[in-house]
Request: fold
Amino acid sequence: MSYKDNRDSLFLCVEAEILRIAIYDIKIKNRIMEIKKMRLMIMMLIAFMLGACSRSDDMEVLLGKVPSDAGYVIGVNVEELLKKGDIKDFSALPPAIEQYLNSHADCKKMLLPLFSEDSGIGHTAAVCFNSKGYDWVIAIVEDKAKAETALAGSGLGERGVIDGGILWISSGSPNKEEINRCMHLGESQSVLSEVPAKEMADMKKDIEVYGNISSFLSSSDMSFSDVSTIKLVLASLFNDAKYLRGGIVFEKGEMNGEFSVLNSKGKDAKLSLETSRLNEDFLKNISGKYDLLAGFSFSEKAVSKLIGQYANLLSLGGYGNLLEGFSGRMALGMNVKDFLKHNEQSGLTVVMEFKNGDTAGKASQGISNFLGSGVLVSAQGNNVIIGTTLPAGTSDSELIGGLNGSTLGVACNISGITEGTGATVWNRWDSGYMRAVPDGKGVRLEYKLTTKDKGGNALLLLLESIAQAGKENEAIKNYLYR
Reply:
């Protein structure tokens, strides 16, 4: 294999994997929930917000109507979102919400009649869930006659049903048998019997999320092959992974949240791989101007196990001992614009940590031979530095802080990536990260997005970003690949 083949293979693999982690996996995202369903769910939640007047006292009642085999459950702290959405006068909504509603005119026309002050529907709580292939949003009905009139004028048709003092809105034609089942759940048959879901009633976060992993996968639109792969990966990473639990909080200038994988007892599922943590000193080995930073830190034992399992997949051939002495800690800094424009003189630097200077020196020679003379490879202390040169500049302390203490993560300077691309909404985000942090025997997934305006309204900017997603994505794509 020639130097060019090796180098291009490395760059293509890194580009594909980093972009998948840093942005989103379109294939999986589309299979988890169809776009039309997602739009309807978001619109229904916004509509409940527009009619709400106090914090949800009905959350526990609604959770009692959700079956324990639900794939996912989403609860909304309406009072807090009203405050954070700056909604005071429903006749003069914030521009971001108006823009989002107008960008989905069909849903707006269909749903908003339900949420007038005289609709008869209690706008104190909203719960979304999935069960038996149906996606639902439910709310309390306070005046059945008024609610039926509002429902008749909503345009929902068969997708809206009032039964047992509950408004049921489905993403498709509702199954009356399923509604009847949910209305008559015993104490041990609703999600309130599951400890992770019962905690949702306290609404400590603005949006609370619960998922039964097995139920979610079985009711999703994913293929049998994809479902099997996900189950296999989860089984290899965690012991007794049964639930996903987390939430989202909106603050001034930022939105943040966390998710954890829990076992059948509602405790953190034990991670099978031994982990360690990334630290600032190691991350500072990447010098230059980058707008994306990624890294991982596992134990030597875990790395040896993975290398043994995937040696053939890595296609190392005669270079099988290339990673001998690798400590399990690695980081990557990327200048996204330079890299995606295929400027081979700048854009990417990789740092790998080895046991000592001797193993780093040997690895440096082997990696250099493997990649060819066109890629810079050098040993510096216990580290091997690989890649092309990043543009001159200082290390980004904010991105380093985003990964510090994590075992795996990616952080990016959003405004740096979008600057000059023609994106006008996404460019108002500052930076963000997604990281896995060791937590007892398990691991906690944390994420955070900050706005350029430190006192900015992250909730409204998120809605505006979603409304303009198509336009913004097209602008960035045209810039990067023109």
